[in-house]
Amino acid sequence: MGKIKVKICGITNLEDAKQAVDLGADILGFVFARSPRQITPQKAKAIIKNLPPFVIRVGVFVNEKLENIEKIVNFCRLNLVQLHGEESPDFCKKVRKFVGVIKAFRMRSALELKKMLNYDVDAYLLDSFVTGVYGGTGKTFDWGLAIKAKRILNKRPLILSGGLNPENIAQAIKKVRPYAVDTSSGVEKFPGKKDKVLLKRYFRKLFLP
Questions:
Q1: 131 has pLDDT over 60
Q2: What is the pLDDT of residue 1?
Q3: What is the set of active-site residues?
Q4: E strand or H helix at 100
Q5: Whole-model pTM?
Q6: How far apart (Å, rounded) are the C-alpha atoms in residues 17 and 6?
Q7: Alpha-carbon distance 14 to 51, whole Å?
C-alpha cells in the first residue's frame, strides 16, 4: 500500500492552507455549505491562487443546486467536489460530468454500507452521524464499519473521516488502512482556524513509520 493521502478540511485562510501543505497535506477542503467553517468562493479562489500546483482542491457542498456547484467549480478551479448531503446517485452522476466526486456517507449503522454501492463516484468518504450536522462533528464512529466498507468497495478509494486528531490518527490508519484520511475540527483552535501545534502533532503521528 502506498502513502496515505492526507486531506485537511475547513480551510478559511492562506496561513492555515500554507502550513498544512508545508507539513505534507495532499488535499485541502473548502466548505461552501452553511457551516462555522464556510468560505465564500471569492476567498477560496484567493487562497487557491497561492497554492502549489499539485495540491488537490476540494469544494464541500451539502444538497446544493447543480448549477451553483458548476459555477463555483469553474470560478475556484476545483479538482473535486465532496457531496456531504442527501445527494442521489443520479445527481452525483450529473456532477461527475464536469468534476470528480467524493460522496460522503454518515455512518449511523451497517445499513449505510449498502447505499454506497448505488453510487458510481471517484471516492467514498465515511464520516460520523450526528443528527442535523453535516461533517466537522469532532466525533468518531465504529471503525469496524470502515473495514467492512473497504471489503464492499473492493479497492475503490475510501476516505476515513470523523473525529480524527493527533491522539487517534496513528491507530485509525493502522486499523482501517484507508486510501486517505480527512480531518477538520481535530486540528483546530476554534471553528475555521487551525491550531499550529495540533497540526504539527497530527502530521508527526501520521508519518510515523
A1: no
A2: 47
A3: 9, 127
A4: strand 100-107
A5: 0.93
A6: 13
A7: 9
Instruction: State the Cα–Cα distance between residues 113 and 136, nearest whole angstrom.
Output: 21
Checking phi first, is residue 10 left (phi over 0); if not, alpha (psi -120 to 50) or beta?
left
pLDDT tens digits along 15-32: 999 999 999 999 999 999
Rounded to whole angstroms, the Cα distance separating 103 from 124 reads 5
pLDDT at 2: 60
For the record, the C-alpha cell of 16 comes out as 492555515
Cα(138)–Cα(188) distance, rounded to whole angstroms?
10
Strands 80-83, 56-61: pairing kind: parallel
Return the pLDDT at 150. 93
Most confident of 65-69, 159-163, 184-188: 65-69
What DSSP assignment string belongs to 17-43?
HHHHHHHT-SEEEEE-SSSTTB--HHH
Other CB atoms within a 10 A radius of the CB of residue 149 amount to: 23
Q: Using alpha carbons, select from 37, 28, 108, 32 the residue that is nearest to residue 73.
A: 32
Output Rg (C-alpha) for the chain, integer angstroms.
Answer: 16
